[in-house]
Amino acid sequence: METGKEKFTIEKAKQIDMVQYLASIGHQVVKVRGNDHWYLSPLRDEDSASFKINSRLNVWYDHGIGKGGNLVDFGIAYFKCSVAEFLDILNGPNSIQKRPKISPKKVAPEDPKIIIEQVSRLTSPSLLKYLRERRIDLDIADLFCSQVHFNLAGKKYFGIGFRNNSNGWEIRNSFYKTSSSPKDYTLIKNGSENLSVFEGYMDFLSFVSFKGEQSLSSDYLILNSLSFFERALPVMYRYEIKNLYLDRDNAGRQATLKAMEIDATFRDNSNLYDGFKDFNDWHIRKENPNLQSRPKPPRTKRSL
């Protein structure tokens, strides 16, 4: 840092422009959508950008680990240090070449919210084609999903909708995925003492398509975001056996290992799709190993 300047306090550090700060430490934006700046996560290894900075709010969120916050929170996670140590880094002479700018306080309109306009049975040829491509049984999809038409910033869209426990929707098609508020997990009961846990509903639909009638021997918890794992623990503890089918990335593996350390009734079933990123990826390619992995569609902007 330049000498003779006032030192950063916690409050001043929180006002540093995060987009500029990430650029100063060597992390460049992959794509920009409105106020959202997407990056390959600086906190872990990944192939598709799932780390977001909202430049209007000047906050970050890493979808892969379900955590976010302000610049101080980021610095603690990035440098694996305390608050005091991060402030020393900001105030030190060798941290970055130029003193980062403090974001001016401004009032801006809120991000547009998704407005659900119509919910119906799945009939769209494009959505049915997408489900077939992902090897989802259409009768299974018809049982658990709907066709959701929604309005976002005055424009109309539609996709495959999966309802959560708070009546919000996880929505996706072949081009994107998004969600409406409120965000929550989904619990599906079949009267079983065993629970099968998935991160996303495409993995759940793949599992039920794969298992057929055997799938009725379990209840299901679809997190809809790994960030709901800890919140859903009280639900999981009601079951004698908790079968985990989480993603085979760092965040999914860490959540699985942590759960198994806490309670021996958690079981890691992800070895079934070892070498693949998740259950659906394995389900698509298990009979055609030469098929390239389908990239996950990006998430569209929604209100925080």
Automatic annotation (TrEMBL):
Coiled coil: none annotated. Gene3D superfamilies: 3.40.1360.10, Zinc finger, CHC2-type domain. It comes from Flavobacterium cerinum. The lineage of its organism: Bacteria, Pseudomonadati, Bacteroidota, Flavobacteriia, Flavobacteriales. This is Toprim domain-containing protein.
